[in-house]
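subagent[fold] <- orchestrator: predict structure for attached chain, return tokens only, no commentary.
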Amino acid sequence: MLCDGILLMRVPTRPVLLASLYLVFVAATVSAHGVDEGDQGFLESNEGAQVGPFVYLGAKHMVTGYDHLLFLVGVVFFLYRLKDVAIYVSMFTVGHSVTLIGGVLLDIQANAYLIDAVIGLSVVYKGFDNLGGFRRLFGFQPDTRGAVLVFGLFHGFGLATKLQKFALSKDGLVANIVAFNVGVEVGQFLALGLILMFMVWWRTKKSFLRHAVATNTALMAAGFLLTGYQLTGYWTA
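subagent[fold] -> orchestrator:
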């Protein structure tokens, strides 16, 4: 069984393998921050404030950003009260909003591969935390809210580094970046709604506790894969 997110059961080998393979496949076959050619062309040719299109691009980026979604799954996995969900998601939102908007408008530069590697580690952290790894192995529990806020800063900065690759017009830049961030929040709200509906349904099944260990182990596996992929890109770029 699981108590307060602490692992008290033996890890079932087959569910771990199947869930890990699935999440590893997802993480390996998608680009968490990829921008397709059509969107890239729009970003580089846009002039002036285009609030609607930038809201759409922000929402699209969030709902197809698998690193963000995996992290959110980990964050809400053991949150049963909507109040707690709201608090943690708000911390994440504040974090990535600050660095997304600030990173672009203040032109704060960083290596995109290293930022995305930390984002991958955020997924590892949340799976490990859900398994009670810190208490069991190190005898302490980090401030989970603070960690979500800090990782939110990195998630937002990851978005900022991708936008900085394009020659964004200064004309209407503030309105466009704010609109993009609003779109990210819209996409996050939609994705989170689907995640929560699934979690509420799954928690009514006996399989939830039985496979909770496997799922969070798979989250860690996917996070390690994402981190390794980004570090490989950094070393070979």
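orchestrator: received. Logging for downstream: The CA atoms of residues 24 and 222 lie 5 Å apart. Confidence is low (pLDDT under 50) at residues 1-13, 28-32.
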